Every structure is written in structure tokens, then in C-alpha cells.
């Protein structure tokens, strides 16, 4: 078992928002959390990411990754784990990327932060390989671009390329396709299944779009009003 969420309670201030959530994810599995807006999907995945917004906090239960509770993680332990054990992508990776620096500088810095022994030249080549892996045409050009010069779909690919650089065991994503048009969405889903197959990486992603879950997920968890109301194999739950 790669990730085990047990009886998780989450509150914002004194307001209990998520109650008794249980999620199990094995190595290499893809699980989707689906549910209507406001049901607590983002709250659950942000708790797993260790970054609940505002005054959110885990008030009960446990989140165990690779045999160790993430709730005990110090900021330093998170820093070491992020990108190498667990990676995250967001709705529009444009948000994570600094708008006023070229993609190449940011990507190279990202690699050097996690692998300080690497030379700038090696890091550049690594970045190019990753951009190529996520099927971005003309990676050299992408490296020279500013984020605003890329489409939303391309920025999302850059975000995935960065997230995948150190072959994490788990990729977490909150609504990775919702800022994309239909074509970019389908392309992104194909890319994620390809990366999943090649790297045997587990993916846990949130979506309000059933068709996205259908396309990608093996297991589905349905949330409603802060609770998990259904879970199981995707074909069973989504039918
Ligand atoms: P979803 O991602 O399924 O749309 P969220 O997890 O964002 O749902 O929200 C679940 C509930 O938690 C909602 O009632 C929302 O108002 C509340 N909530 C979300 N973020 C915060 C926050 N930062 N502070 C207080 N309440 C929040
Ligand atoms: Mg949400």
C-alpha cells in the first residue's frame, strides 16, 4: 500500500468540513476523487499535500505514505519529499510557474534545488529530455519562452514535466484538466496514462468531470458534503 488515508477529519477553524474519509492507493494505481463543487475534494487532496489553505487543519485520522505518517512531516521533510517521492500539479500549472522568468531558468533551478550536485548544463539537458517526454514540440524554444508565451495546455505540460523529473512514486493533481479546452484535455489525459504506464507511478487526482475519471482512473471515490459516499473500481462506481 502506497497511500493510506484513515478516518480523516478536516476542519476550517471550528467548522468540521471533511469527516471520516478513507482512501487506499496501491503502487502504480490511478484513483480519482469525484463529486460536486464544495463536497470537500480539494480539502482532502490539500491535506494529503500537507498544504491546507487558510485555517484548515487535520483534526482526526491519519495519512500514511510508504509506511510513514505525513502528518508528522516537518517542513524540511516535506521539502525533501516533494518532487522526489510525491509531486503535485495544479489546475493551471501557470500558477506555480513564476510569470516573469523564462521556463528554462525555472526548470534548471528546480532541478538544481533537488539535485545540487548536477551541473547547469546537465540540468538543462535533463529539462530538455523531460519536455520532450511530455511531447512538447521544440523543447529548446519552450526553455527560452516566458510562461505567458505558452498556451494553458503547454504550461500544464511544463508543470507535469517538472513534476516527473525525479520519478516520484505518487502524483497528486487537483482538477488538472479543468482550465483546458476539450482537445488539450484529451491530450493531457493521454499523456498522463502514458507516463503512468511507463513509470508505474501512482496518480491521485481530483475532478468534477466524470468523463475525465472514466478516461483515467482505475479506482473512484465519490464525495458528497464532506463525506465519502461511495468508492470502488471505476467501472463499477461510475456506471
Ligand atoms: P471542492 O474542491 O469539492 O469543490 P472544497 O474542498 O474546496 O470543495 O470545499 C469544501 C468546503 O470547505 C466548502 O464548504 C468550502 O466552503 C470550505 N472551504 C474550502 N476552503 C476553505 C477555506 N480556505 N476556509 C474556509 N472554508 C473553506
Ligand atoms: Mg476543488
Please tell me what the overall shape is.
Answer: globular
Structural class: alpha/beta
What small molecules accompany the polymer chains?
adenosine-5'-diphosphate, magnesium ion
User: What is the H/E order?
Assistant: EEEHEEHEHHHHEHEHEEH
> How many strands, which pairing sense, and closed or not: the largest β-sheet?
6 strands, mixed
Our measurement of the CA-to-CA distance between the termini, rounded to an integer number of angstroms, reads 26 Å
Q: Helix tally?
A: 9
Describe this structure in words.
The protein has nine helices and ten strands. It has helices at 41-49, 75-81, 103-114, 120-133, 139-144, 152-164, 182-199, 210-216, 234-238; strands at 3-12, 15-25, 30-35, 56-65, 68-69, 86-89, 170-174, 202-207, 219-224, 227-233. The strands form two sheets. The chain has a six-stranded mixed β-sheet with strand order 6-7-8-3-9-10, sandwiched between helices. A four-stranded antiparallel β-sheet has the order 2-1-4-5, covered by helices on one side. The two termini are 26 Å apart. Bound molecules: adenosine-5'-diphosphate and magnesium ion. Residues 12, 17, 35, 37-43, 53-54, 56 line the site of adenosine-5'-diphosphate. Residues 41-42 line the site of magnesium ion.
Keywords:
239 residues, alpha/beta, 6-stranded mixed sheet, 9 helices, 28% strand, binds adenosine-5'-diphosphate, binds magnesium ion
